[in-house]
Amino acid sequence: IIDRICSWLLVDQMSGAIHLARVCQVNLRMRAVVDKRFVERCAIALGAPRDCHTLEHIAVHQDLALLGTNAISFLGASPLMHKGSRARVEDFAIIMHRHPRLHAHVHAHTGVRAPSMIAPKFTRYRARAVAELLQAHGVDEMRVSITGWGTKVAAAAGWNPGKESARGEVFFALDGVTFPDFPPEYGDAGTPPNQGSDDSDGQGSSLHSYSDSSGSESDAPGDYD
């Protein structure tokens, strides 16, 4: 009799466990649907990229939105950043430490007056300066990539030569979602120019500055970009 009772109890326990597992499975499915809808509503309310589908995406968007901009400004015809931009790069590094899977891609530009022979490599040099500063703040180099656009994006955007064109922009990626969204001038610019080597432009010109038509070099803000 005791064995029979124990057998019944065991069957009841197994049946209960199976029922509980089914309930939990249904609950997880419902929670996933609710979480997805919650994230979608948060993304819309906060102006986050439409591809956001996790709470970490929302967190990354909020962290970057608090900085106000993803732009970096350079001093004249040089890869040197303004003090405020250097501080912003440090803030980028803090966010990347907060989100260890976040990847940064630095895009750098120069204005339409830059000599076409060195503009792509000059802007790559600018992008590399930003990447190296991120690395100096502890970001692994494998999490940072760079592109020098030369004058292509500046021309597509219609940026004024000078301070407006002496710029870079840092975009971030997580699980295929880009923060922030790329502005239309990147699409209008087409593909980046051939990046080539960072060591030399093949013409003997300096990557740190470029010359005007008289041959004099300048790094004064506003003169060149």
Structure notes:
This protein is an alpha+beta fold. Helix content is about 45%, strand content about 10%. It contains six helices and five strands, in the order H-H-E-H-E-H-E-H-E-E-H. The protein has helices spanning about 1-45, 55-65, 85-100, 120-135, 150-155, 185-190, and strands at about 70-75, 105-110, 145-150, 165-175, 175-180. Strands 1, 2, 3, 4 and 5 form a five-stranded mixed β-sheet that branches. Helix 4 links the parallel strand 2 (about 105-110) and strand 3 (about 145-150). The longest helix is centred in the first third of the chain and has 45 residues, at about 1-45. The protein starts with a helix and ends in a 36-residue tail after the last helix. The model is unreliable at about 25-35 and about 200-225 (pLDDT under 50).
